Amino acid sequence: MGPGEVAAILFSTFGVLVFLRVPVAFALGLAVVPVFFIDDRLTPVLLMREMFKSYNSFVLLAVPFFLLAANLMNSAGITDRLIRLSRAMVGHLPGGLGHVNIVVSMLFAGISGSSTADAAGIGSLLIPQMKKEGYDASFAVAITACSSVMGVIIPPSILMVVWGGLMSVSIGGLFLAGVVPGILIAGSQMLTVYIYAKRRGYPVHTRSTLMELARAAFSASLALMTPIIIVGGIVGGFFTPTEASVVAVLYSLLLGVFVYRSITPRQLPSVLYDSARFAAITLFCIGTASAFGWCLAYFKIPAALVSQIDQMGLGVIGIGIMSALAFLLIGMFIDAIPAIIILGTVLYPVTEHVGMHPIHFAIIGVMSLAFGLVTPPYGLCLLIAASLGKIRLVDALRDVVVILIPMTVVLMIIILLPDLILALPRWIMPRFVQ
């Protein structure tokens, strides 16, 4: 059988299993099984072997440690301090709490690297408060979900760690390249909130005094050191991404237990258990996705795709748009990490063939997959926010679409202007990013 027929079997089997509500991690593994009967050299044992081989990666240790750091920060009450700082900074703008929601997501993104931790931690505090002040529940849920996607775009980002380790791309360069897109996403969302506030008459808080701003900044200063320590340590070559994740955990533990004293020894087992549970789900997904990706490579499906696209004569921009659409589509159905392993590894040779910079391709992929966190049927961040807002997911969809429109414009800017995101990595890391 040729690459096309094998690809059709793999993806159609996977699609049917997902439609039947089989969990994605299991669907990826089961979709490979029929293909193993096509070739005599393939046995079901290979499925397990490829899964275990994927775990033999030092960089993957960063995933559970970054998740643990995010949970520790949430438990330590860091979110409260960031909200106070954000309120002092932008609370006086029209639709004050909407702007606070966005700014605190930016700040928390620089600490956690996880969008789901962002949506859960910030949503539990701000959604009830926004509803109490007269904001529509659908808008409160939509802006919380959409702003949380910055968690995987602004460094440090778990998705960038996985992408860099999988495709041998500088993780420090990826972190630096995520700064400008993150700021542009936040700016587009704040513009949307401003328009909403003017049209719907959302409340405005009184402007904070300079002393109040200084106090809020001082209160959050130790937490805001986290991205400086992590990103600065990686970019400066002081430690690897995995070591940085351990440093983030130790720093979070130090703040929560000894400095703020908001985490008691009795709370630690539950924090560790929750982090281990989420990490286990993520890592199992990585294993089955790696087996799926190996199967694609074995039957030379990426090479066949390169050949087909080469005949179309697409350039860097054309491939960038095509990649974004593919990631946006797959992100609607599965988690971002398995999507990177499956689709990223398939499209990477295509982007190399047309001369696209690997960091440019990575940022397009990460941003597009971040959108999948708020687009059904997967839409994990939207599900979390809707649950916290006590509304049906469909009730928030209209506002989500409105907020996503300017965010999509930002994605197009990133595709069309690669030098915009590559400027910072080239300036700070010229030896590693050309």
Task: Give your account of this protein's structure.
- It is a single chain.
- It is built from 21 helices and no strands.
- The two termini are 41 Å apart.
- Helix 6 runs antiparallel to helix 11 and helix 10 crosses helix 21.
- The protein is mostly helical and 434 residues long.
Question: What layout of secondary structure does this protein have?
Answer:
Layout: H1 3-19, H2 24-32, H3 44-55, H4 62-75, H5 78-90, H6 96-112, H7 115-132, H8 137-148, H9 158-167, H10 171-177, H11 179-200, H12 210-235, H13 241-259, H14 268-298, H15 301-312, H16 316-331, H17 336-354, H18 358-371, H19 380-389, H20 393-416, H21 418-428
Helix pairs in contact: 1-2, 2-14, 3-14, 4-13, 4-14, 5-6, 5-12, 6-7, 6-8, 6-11, 7-8, 7-19, 8-19, 8-20, 9-17, 10-21, 11-20, 12-13, 14-17, 15-17, 16-17, 16-18, 16-20, 17-18, 18-20
Rounded to the nearest angstrom, the distance between the terminal CA atoms is 41 Å
Radius of gyration: 22 Å
Uncertain segments of ≥5 residues (pLDDT<50)?
A: none
Which percent range describes the beta-strand content?
A: under 5%
Count of helical regions: 21
Q: Can you write the helix and strand succession as a string?
A: HHHHHHHHHHHHHHHHHHHHH
The largest sheet, given as strand count, sense and whether it forms a barrel, is:
none
| Total E-strand runs | 0
Overall 3D form? globular
Overall average pLDDT: 88
Structural class: mainly alpha
User: Which range best describes the helical content: under 10%, 10-25%, 25-40%, 40-55%, 55-70% or over 70%?
Assistant: over 70%
